[in-house]
From TrEMBL:
Name of the molecule in the record: Threonine/homoserine/homoserine lactone efflux protein
Taxonomic lineage from the root: Bacteria, Pseudomonadati, Pseudomonadota, Gammaproteobacteria, Oceanospirillales
Main location: membrane
Signal peptide: 1-25
A Pfam family recorded for this sequence: LysE
InterPro entries xrefs: LeuE-type (IPR001123)
Domain of life (superkingdom): Bacteria
Record's GO cellular component terms: plasma membrane
């Protein structure tokens, strides 16, 4: 995979991870309820669930490209429309309510369980990956390139939520994030709409 293409993939994965939603709320709750360690565990566990969905998506899309090229074209266009819809929703979201999540009574085991379950039980996550990764998977892509895609999505998700857990262990950080949540939504929305336009024009 060319480095410039990987940078595009990494940027989109980062924006997807950073956008306020149930995953961020879950990591916040465990961090506020149990401190840094449960928050980090929740974030890493969530990333494992994300990696599992990315793995299924990459290998599934590879099979579709080879055996059903017309279906893959429809998936690509549908994915572009879905990304644009997500972008518009993000632009209209304003301040992310997830940044106001309260604390819960937690443990390392509960944090690990919730991290995986929130990822796997989120049907929008698989739709996001189908929409996103259809732009990066090609018919001649080798196994190593697919591993790079899956690893990128997994590691970026883990890095973001670990950073959130570590940062929120300092009490001053949450108010700072809450005050700027609308900018996270706006940047995410613009990036998703730009990717959708790139797909349609390409």
């Amino acid at each position: 995979m060319p480095f410039t293409l990987w940078l595009s993939l990494a940027a989109i994965c980062a924006m997807g991870a950073m956008s306020p939603g149930p995953s961020l709320a879950m990591v916040l709750r465990h961090t506020l309820g149990g401190g840094r360690a449960p928050g980090v565990i929740a974030g890493v566990s969530h990333a494992l669930g994300v990696g599992f969905y990315a793995l299924l998506t990459v290998w599934g899309l590879g099979a579709v490209i080879v055996h059903q090229p017309l279906l893959f074209t429809l998936i690509t266009w549908g994915g572009a429309a879905y990304l644009a819809w997500l972008g518009v929703k993000a632009l209209r979201a304003g301040r992310g309510g997830a940044l106001e999540a309260g604390a819960v009574s937690t443990s390392h085991a509960l944090a690990a369980r919730d991290g995986v379950l929130v990822a796997l039980a989120n049907p929008k996550l698989i739709l996001f990956f189908v929409a996103l990764l259809s732009q990066f998977v090609s018919a001649d892509m080798g196994a190593l390139a697919k591993v790079v895609i899956v690893a990128t999505a997994t590691l970026i998700d883990a890095a973001w939520y670990v950073l959130v857990a570590v940062a929120l262990s300092h009490s001053r950080v949450l108010p700072w994030l809450q005050a700027r949540a609308h900018w996270i939504n706006r940047i995410t929305g613009l990036l998703l709409i730009a990717l959708a336009l790139r797909v349609l024009l390409g």
